[in-house]
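#struct-help
A.M.: can someone run this one for me? Single chain, 333 residues.
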Amino acid sequence: MPYFRAALILCAALISTPVLAQPAPVSVALDWTPNTNHIGLFVAEAKGFYEEAGIEVEILPYTDTSAATLVANDVADFGVLGSVGLFTQRTAGADLVATYALVQTETGRLVFSADRDDIRTPRDLDGKMYAGFGSGWETALIGTIIGHDGGLGEFETVTLGTSAYEALANGTVDFTLEVYTWEGIKAERDGPAQRAFRYADYGVPDQHTNFLGTTGAYLAEHPETARAFISASRRGYAYAVAHPDEATDILVSANADSLLDRDFVRASLQALIDGHYLQAEDGTIGTIDPGKMEAMGSFLFEAGLLKDGNGVAVEAKPNFTTYYSNDYLGTAP
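D.P.: on it. C-alpha cells below:
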C-alpha cells in the first residue's frame, strides 16, 4: 500500500507540473557565403541568445538559389534579402516582408582604379566599359549617377559576375560596383588602390542594402517566434558592434570550412562599425527607415524595374509600407 500511495503521489506531481515547451525551430538562409553581414546571426547562436529566446536556429548552408526564393517557397523561415530583390520579387507576387535592416545605409559603391586620371567625376564614365552582374538595377543605377553629373549615361557593359573585380584589377574594364565593407576593404588591404563614387551623392536614394525577412504567412502564423528570432538576432548584432574581436572569432570559428582570413574579417567588421552601417550614430540598430523604403521603391518604380508576375511593368506605384515591418524588433539591446 505505501508503494501504491507513493506512485499516486508521483503521478499527481507529474500531471500538475507544466511541461517545458520545446524550442521553436527557425531556419535562416544566407544570401552569400558567410561574411560580416551575417555576423550577428552567428554571434546570437554562439552566445546563447537564441536559446534564451526559446528558439533553435539553423543557419542553412549557402546555395545558388537566392535566399528570397527559398523564403518565398517555404524552404527557409527567414533569409537575408537584398533590397532590390525584395522590391522586385514582392511586386511580382512573392510573399516577402523585411523585418530587420541589416545595415542602416548603403554599403555599395561604384569603383575604378585610383590611377585613372581620365575619370574625375561620373560623367567621365560615358563610353567606358562596365563589368556587371546582369541586372536591370545596375543600368538604372549607373545611368542615374552619370546623368546626375551631367553625362549622357551611355556606357558599355560586359557581364562577368564576381570576375569583375579581377577584370578591374588587370585593366580589362573601366569600372564596376562593389560592397565597400567587403570587396572595398580587400582592395584597401591588398590593392590595387581604388577611387569610388557613392550612389547617394549622385541622385540615387540611400537604402538599407539588405534585410532579414520572411513571409507574411509566417508572421501571421508564428508572430511570437518571429519576434523572438528578430529580437535575439538584433541582440547578436549589437554584441558584435560592442565586442568586435570576440565576434570576429565567433564568425571565423563557426565557418572553419570557409577558411576565412581572421584579420580580413576583423577589418571588414571594423569598417561596418566605423561607417555606422550596423548601428547608426544615434544608436539605431535593425530599424527599417520608412523614408528610405519609399524613396528606393519609388526609384525602382520610376525606372520601370517593378514588374508583375507576367513580367509587365506595373502602372501604379505599390504601397511600399506593406513590404516591411518594424513590429518584430523587440526592445533595444
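A.M.: thanks! The domain at 108-202 is CATH 3.40.190.10 (D-Maltodextrin-Binding Protein; domain 2).
D.P.: also worth noting: The chain has two domains: 24-105+208-323, 108-202.
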